[in-house]
Structure formats: C-alpha cells, structure tokens
C-alpha cells in the first residue's frame, strides 16, 4: 500500500512538474507574442510617419519624376540644390546692386559738392525774387544749388503750401538751377509778394 501510495505520489509529482513546465512554456509564448505585436505596431507607426513625410515632401517639390520613395527623395535633393543656386545668384545680384547704388550715391555727392563749389567760385548765391504781374498772379525767380531731385521736391512743396504753377521753366548753369514761374494761390487763395518770398525761402531750407 505504501509503495502504491508512493507511486501515486511520484506520478502526481511528475504530473505536477509537467503541468508546471507547460504553464511556464505558455507564459513564455504569450510574452513573445506580445513583444512581436508591439514591434509590429511600432513598425506600422514608423511606416505611417514616413509615408506622411514623403507626401509632404512630394507636395513641396514642384516636379516629381516618379512616385516611389527613392525618386521623391532624389527629386527633393535636386530641387533643393537648384534653389541653393538661385539664392547664390540672387545674393550676387543684390551685392552688385548695393555696390552700384553706393557708387551712384558717391558720384551724386561729388557732383553736388562740385556744384556748390562752382556756385561759390562764380559768386552765385541762392536767392528768391517775387514780383506782381497782374491780378493775383505772381512771377517768381529762384536760384538754388543743383542737387539731385531738388527741383521735384521744390514743386511738391509749393503745391502743398497752396501755390499753383501756371507756367514754369528750369535752366542749369555753373552748379546752379534757375527756376522761373508764374504762380497764383490755389482755390482762389491770395498770396502777397512778401508772404510768397518768405514761404519759398522756408521751402528752400527744407529741401
């Protein structure tokens, strides 16, 4: 009986051991499946992110020769290099324009200095003369230093202050500009000789 009982116990022990091993094997299998499943999800997310970025890249590049991944990347690289070349060309052009602009400014400044010196050498000074010709019309004579854009600014300022030019003439000589014109007040406004002279002198100081 004892032997039978021991045999039973031994069998029971073996069965328990077998079931234990089977249980451990199942747990290991479940862990492996779970690990593989996580890897698959991670790989799927990576592929989806890559596909999304490729679509964005394809939308940014104007010319795509083929829709596969390798070609999209190659076309994007080529397009980037093309843009880089354009940037270099435009940068060079901008630098040339800046140099040209600086040279023009220097030339203009030299000319203006030359005009001023020539006026002094010839004894010419800036001056304003105003006389009445008929009714409210006035005849003006302005001598001013020859500077780039100064005549245009003079006309603009006179218009802003309400002086309307009926007729005007511009001549340049010996570094100076001579402006003669017939003017009257805009919108029927009346200007006296003294008012007009003071106004023109004020304008000359500002231009």
UniProtKB/TrEMBL annotation:
It is found in: Nucleus. Its main location: nucleus. The keyword Nucleus applies. GO terms for molecular function: DNA-binding transcription factor activity; protein dimerization activity; sequence-specific DNA binding. It comes from the Eukaryota. Gene3D superfamilies: Helix-loop-helix DNA-binding domain. The keyword Cytoplasm does not apply. This is TRANSCRIPTION FACTOR DYT1.
